[in-house]
Amino acid sequence: MSEFRSIRVHAVVLRHADWGEADRLVTLYTREQGKLRAVAKGARKITSRKAGHLEPFTHVKLQLARGRSLFIVTQADTVDAYLPLRETLLMTGTASYVVELLDRFVYEEEGANPTLFRLLAETLKRLANDEDPWLAVRYYEMRLLDFLGFRPQLFECANCGREIKAEDQFFSFSAGGVICPRCGRGLPNLTSITIDALKYLRHFQRSSYAESKRAQPALDVRDEVETLMQGYFTYLLERELNSPGFLKNIRGQNKSTS
Ligand SMILES: [Zn+2]
Question: How much is the pTM?
Fold first, then answer.
């Protein structure tokens, strides 16, 4: 078998589904090829040596052979199973959210994005290492928005362009950023945002993870930031479903202007 027909990849398992009688279809985010799907033959048999390596949010090294329409997993080794993520429902749910966000924004034919792969693997590791999961997930969301071309505008009003002052503001999902109180009075479909929540969003946007970790937001601010970010992601994903080509266009524009 030539090298061309067989590849080695680092991958995070995004999800899996039953396939045929005893096989499993795994959706992977790979460092070398981006998102792809592969069949693990016999992975549902009790004796399968591959099955344990192919659970969701496991970091694996795989040998893949190119089949007629899908890749076939020929060898699987675990790099990190992130075992703590499987210990509580809360951790499993948090890891599922992280993996699902990427899964829903990224398409199979897009090709490799090693930075995105590293972000995913690092985020799972942070969660597994029992660091503040709230902070690890918010930092992940902010970086993901950067990479996807939806970096929110947090320093100037997304409507009039004026610098944002230290007071409570509005946020617009459709404009992708903060709206000043003056513009906010005349615009529909805005969410309010306190200056405290905005400070943390700015901090995550500008800082490394190590710097972000110094943030100690109060509980109500944590709730506010989380609700706002999830609202923004929900908005982006719904819009994506309405017009599947939209995200690709945005990313195309970003590539050509950067
Ligand atoms: Zn304004």
Answer: 0.87
Three-class SS of residue 30?
Answer: strand
Identify the pLDDT of residue 46. Answer: 76
Helix axes 195-206, 219-242, angle to 10 degrees: 70
38: its two tokens = 């592969």
Distance between CA atoms of residues 91 and 8, nearest Å: 30
Helix (H, G, I), strand (E, B) or coil at 1: coil
Mean of all residue pLDDT scores within the chain: 89
Dihedrals phi, psi of 133, to nearest 5 degrees: -65, -35
- How far does residue 256's CA lie from ligand 1's centre (Å)? 28
What's at 45, amino acid-wise? Answer: K
**Residue 170 CA to ligand 1 centre (angstroms):** 10
The span from the CA of 97 to the CA of 90, in Å, is 11
Q: Is the dihedral of CA 50, 53, 57, 62 positive or negative?
A: negative
